[in-house]
Amino acid sequence: DAGVIQSPRHEVTEMGQEVTLRCKPISGHDYLFWYRQTMMRGLELLIYFNNNVPIDDSGMPEDRFSAKMPNASFSTLKIQPSEPRDSAVYFCASSLRQGKASYEQYFGPGTRLTVT
Amino acid sequence: DQQVKQNSPSLSVQEGRISILNCDYTNSMFDYFLWYKKYPAEGPTFLISISSIKDKNEDGRFTVFLNKSAKHLSLHIVPSQPGDSAVYFCAASEGTGNQFYFGTGTSLTVIP
Fold it and tell me: B42 vs A45: CB contact, 8 Å cut-off?
């Protein structure tokens, strides 16, 4: 399997612009997670989906952030409008939940976002 | 507020010696813990886990210890190798939930 695929790997944009990050989870996985990594807070969970349905979006920092999962093989995280403080590395992860033995999450390579 | 804390941002160890990475948590309901390893420009990869019913789990050179009364876990790497140089994150979850709380990471450098 190719693993979790994220695009783009790097994104540089100007403040106020819309940014869309994309994720393709591992085929067959039923959970998808979006994280943001910063030096101060480490890996923060933004939102996660189960079978394409958003379960918990309490980590989404503001209304400027939105996430969708239109089907089992694709998800987007959108920031509109973007601000410099959104600069971070955004990770997508997926997992297959079959009891406690499968808590492992598989991470994509991340998207490094820079907002100037 | 950070529910999982890694208070050492960095650690340097000589090759062949033991590396000990520490992690503290505040939520006594956490009952499942994982360690992830992250190389630059890559996503974190799963390393080892432990359930709260155990106090130790071993996998090759990696051992995780859990002290529930102290709300503390540690990752021991013996012997340390240069390829172990990476950022290590600990994570915790509660009950049957799927949400993990991650620490801020510890950057380990193993000096040849």
Answer: no
Tokens of B82: 């240069």
Are A70 and A5 spatial neighbours (Cβ–Cβ below 8 Å)?
no
User: Average pLDDT for residues B62-86, to the nearest whole number?
Assistant: 97
Residue of A48, A100, A107 with shortest CB distance to B43: A107
Given a contact cutoff of 8 angstroms between Cβ atoms, the answer to whether A57 and A3 are in contact is: no
Residue ranges of E strands in B1-112: 4-5, 10-14, 19-25, 30-38, 45-51, 56-59, 62-67, 72-77, 86-94, 101-102, 106-111
Enumerate residues 6+ apart whose C-beta is below 8 A from B97.
Answer: none
CA distances from A43 to A59, A89, A104, B68, B95 (A): 11, 9, 15, 23, 20
Which residue in chain A is spatially nearest to B100 when comparing CA positions? A45
Put simply, the answer to whether A103 touches B44 (Cβ < 8 Å) is no
**Is B12:B109 a contact under the CB 8 Å cutoff?**
yes
Q: What is the pLDDT of residues B35-46, one digit of tens each?
A: 999 999 899 999
Per-residue pLDDT at A98: 56
